Amino acid sequence: MSLGKPLKHFLDLDAFDGAMLRQLVDDAQRMKSARQGLPKGQCDDDAPLTGRMLALVFEKPSTRTRISFDVGMRQLGGECMFLDGRDMQFGHGETVGDTSRVLSRYVDAIVLRSKRHQSLLDLARTASVPVINGLTDKTHPCQLMADIMTFEEHRGPITGKTVTWSGAGNNVCASWIHAAVRFNFVLRIACPAEIEPDPAVMAWARAQKGRVDIVRDPYEAVAGTSAVVTDTWVQMSETDNLGEGGTRSRHNSLVRYRVDERLMQAAGKDAIFMHCLPAHRGEEVTDAVLDGPQSVVFDEAENRLHSQKAVLRWALT
Ligand code: CP
Ligand code: NVA
User: Fold this and answer.
1) Whole-angstrom distance, CA of residue 100 vs CA of residue 95
2) 136: phi > 0 → left, psi -120 to 50 → alpha, else beta; which?
3) Which of 56, 80, 183, 218 would give a disulfide with 190, using CB separation of 3.0 to 4.6 Å?
4) Is 36 noted as a catalytic residue in this protein?
5) Whether the model pTM is above 0.85
6) 82 Cβ contact partners less than 8 Å away, ≥ 6 residues apart
7) C-alpha distances in angstroms, 163 versus 43, 90, 116, 140, 193?
């Protein structure tokens, strides 16, 4: 039950100011350093979430988000339960609002991975415990906390740098746009006209005077960049079909945005390669790039753990 204090939901990066997000990244880095060499199952020294329970409600598959939240909660001294949304009553007619009120009586915080962003908003509106966005069709803010942390580990402060996205203007891309504004870096998005980022998110970035541009040519977009980022061409619960009776596919539109060795060469040897994973090898990225010396994708995956611990600490203490 809420005691009248505002709930600390972590729904999207645009809801926070840059200083608050910076504090979370710094906290994550501090917790990562403090754990160097410790067994992964060992609690942090201060175990700040002892006695607290986190519910992970997932309507879509997950490896990284699910496991990193589970391990992170245990390292902080708390406990965690995984709930497959498809097995819950809300997958069979119970409203999100009723589910939210019930869960709030049992657990101290909820992570939701949902098919529809509106479900996340409905859950947060009706819950009396903090709600964390574990990915929706629109955004993936926890991924970006790990990505900013990873970028900075390899290339120093991100403020003022340039990052290039090459591929579909999807949910992860939308959170990169939020991050570009909040951490004040330049984001160039190379994508086809038919798969551009959400116009509402682009309009928000423009209103905030963010330095976010859409370009068609991936080679133009990677010139002088510090990082090349991509993601799967078809997101979970989307189809490959772009309409017109099935004659246009996302794959056909996106093939020129594939990140291969030639594109990485154009970006230069100082540019890192980033991908939230899972990757569809040979589609949006080649094996040579994903497994190559510029790739930091497994650091990104690891940093999901540390950055989400910072989010959990903030939300629950
Ligand atoms: N990057 C990411 O969210 O991965 P999962 O789908 O495995 O959680
Ligand atoms: N854009 C991908 C990200 C997966 C972590 C999807 O939504 O399927």
Assistant:
1) 9
2) beta
3) 218
4) no
5) yes
6) 56, 58, 66, 70
7) 35, 39, 28, 17, 20
Residues with a CB atom less than 6 Å from ligand 1: 62-66, 135, 143, 276-278
Per-residue pLDDT, 90: 87
* Cβ neighbourhood burial of 271 (10 Å; 0-12, 13-18, 19+): buried
The residue whose CA has the least distance to atom 4 of ligand 1 is: 64
Residue 30 annotated among the catalytic residues of the structure: no
H-type helices in 76-170, by residue range? 96-106, 117-126, 141-155
User: pLDDT tens digit string along 182-213?
Assistant: 999 999 999 999 999 999 999 999 999 999 99
Using CB distances shorter than 6 Å, the residues near ligand 2 are 135, 170-172, 231-232, 235-236, 276
Cβ-proximal residues to 231 (8 Å cutoff; 6+ apart), any chain: 167, 168, 170, 172, 173, 275, 276, 284
**Ligand 1 centroid distance, CA of 56 (Å):** 13
What percentage of residues in the chain have a pLDDT greater than 70? 97
Ligand 1 probe mutation, 82, 230, 277, most atoms within 8 A of CB: 277
Q: Which ligand is nearest to the CA of 63?
A: 1
- 140 is annotated as an active-site residue: yes
* Backbone dihedral angles phi then psi of residue 134, each to the nearest 5 degrees: -100, 20
pLDDT digits (tens, 9 = 90+) for 39-73: 999 999 999 999 999 999 999 999 999 999 999 99
Write phi, then psi, for 214 (nearest 5 degrees). -105, 130
For ligand 2, atom 2, which residue shows the shortest CA distance?
235
